[in-house]
Amino acid sequence: VIENRHFLIDCGEGAQMQLSRFQVPVQRIDHILISHLHGDHYLGLMGLLFSMHLLRRTKPLDLYAPHALGPIVTAQLHAAGTALCFPLTFHPLPVGPSQVILETDHIAIETIPLLHRTPTYGFLFREKPKPWRLNKAKLPPDLSWDDRNRLKEGKDLFSDTGQLRYTNRDLTLAPKKSRSYAYCSDTAYNEQLMSRLQGVDLIYHEATFLDEKELQASKTFHSTARQAALIARGAGASRLLLGHFSARYKDLQPLLDEARAVFPATDLAIEGESFTLEE
Amino acid sequence: VIENRHFLIDCGEGAQMQLSRFQVPVQRIDHILISHLHGDHYLGLMGLLFSMHLLRRTKPLDLYAPHALGPIVTAQLHAAGTALCFPLTFHPLPVGPSQVILETDHIAIETIPLLHRTPTYGFLFREKPKPWRLNKAKLPPDLSWDDRNRLKEGKDLFSDTGQLRYTNRDLTLAPKKSRSYAYCSDTAYNEQLMSRLQGVDLIYHEATFLDEKELQASKTFHSTARQAALIARGAGASRLLLGHFSARYKDLQPLLDEARAVFPATDLAIEGESFTLEE
């Protein structure tokens, strides 16, 4: 959730049941981003679209995914004889280097190229610079709305004849922090992420294996918990979330311990839990 | 399960999780039949196929479904970059009147045309006539294997010179009953089913609504519990299983009561329960 826009990233089989179980209202979702077309990342999409239709959604929905998903969705709608009762816009993800795929007044989302067995995209959410905050204790009474907006933009105030009336820093407080979140779906260990994700607040990174399975991780284009932590440390991130654990690990604590040894501010992405990035 | 062949009919989202929950070994499934391409009847198929692949299945799988499913499966395998490690044969269901789609030594399966918003197929499973059973108490010691097989086929035994040696009925017991099962997926009330399903042992019939919603049932090409029971009674079936209940009914007892008032040998198809047809 950013500025009351709701983003769903990836949508495995049963996603609609899980959303319902955790009482996430599906009709609030405005944007769905699919990182790649392996089953565990998108097979819940059609069920979610059909449910939105049955619930008589009217609000537009934007879908960002590898281009091959377009015809798959179209064929499944056609096979069901369903013309969706809401506008669905499909945005094929651009092949190649990082690109901005969505930009609003408040945020920009760009792709993160990842290394996997099929074309796979990470997503970097960045809030745009926020306005300077008016310091109400110091605000003179004679300010117009234009004056106030100039202050929020960080500008000083001048009279019609060009004389300095007020210095911005005397009347304002520094803007709130612009937060950032990087979602790194399935990927082999990729040191380029360290520079690309410099200073990101929160990184979600897959950690399919423990480091003792590093060879298997590299063969299957996945990462180990330690490798995920190395990325977070190298990027100077504030926090790391691990996910996409192999079903072989009934106990996830060793994965967490392994990552924390490298990057202490690590947590596990547990189904149904929510994380808030403070401003 | 018929003669150790395992059939899966329809495969909604989450089917593989439910099969696992009820400890049904997915690799034993030999044949998957899909009645129609509404999401709740087939969106779990791809996940099941991918899982069979990950579990390194080698045994062939036969898939029977409306023809539009073929390219949908192919596109999804292609998008994932997956070449299945087991042979998957797709059999598009024949448009039009009832046809036999699968025949083995022991059974035949034919389609049942249904009335729904998209091309929809029911499936009628019929065991073939079974052999006469040798009555061990009466069997003379001088019978060859050929003699025994002739008896099982219901034939009398003659000497080389054409003289009657034994009358079949003196040495045999009547064959076991040939069982039959009709799966009637989503359909509007359709009286033609009564003649088509004459004498079937077990009918599964959808019962989306109570009869007070008959208008809504007919508008959406679904049936009421009472209508399902009328079909079973008209067909002279032995038993009726109701399923596909609207989510509006938290308590299913009224649906069962309504059907039993017309056809007492009715049960609800509850997830995870199994039904055996006695011979």
Would you mind describing this structure in some detail?
2 copies of one chain form a homodimer. With 279 residues, chain A is an alpha/beta fold. The mean pLDDT of chain A is 95. Helices cover 28% and strands 23% of the residues of chain A. In chain A, helix 9 (225-235) packs parallel to helix 10 (253-262). Chain A is built from 10 helices and 15 strands. Chain A has helices at 15-21, 39-42, 45-54, 69-80, 145-152, 168-171, 192-196, 214-219, 225-235, 253-262, and strands at 6-9, 29-33, 61-65, 88-92, 100-103, 107-113, 121-127, 133-134, 157-158, 164-166, 172-173, 180-184, 202-206, 239-243, 266-268.
Main attributes?
homodimer; 279 residues; alpha/beta; globular
Order of helices and strands of chain A: EHEHHEHEEEEEHEEHEEHEHHEHE
Q: Taking strands numbered 1, 2, ... along the chain, how are they ordered across the largest sheet of chain A?
A: 5-6-7-12-13-14-15
Mean pLDDT of chain A: 95
Helix fraction of chain A?
25-40%
The count of β-strands of chain A is 15
Low-confidence stretches of chain A: none
Instruction: State the shape of chain A.
Output: globular
N-C termini distance of chain A: 13 Å
Largest interface: A-B, 25 and 25 residues
Biggest sheet statistics of chain A:
7 strands, mixed
Multimer state: homodimer
Beta-strand level of the residues of chain A, as a percent range? 15-25%
Query: Could you tell me the radius of gyration of chain A in angstroms?
Result: 22 Å
Secondary-structure-derived class of chain A: alpha/beta
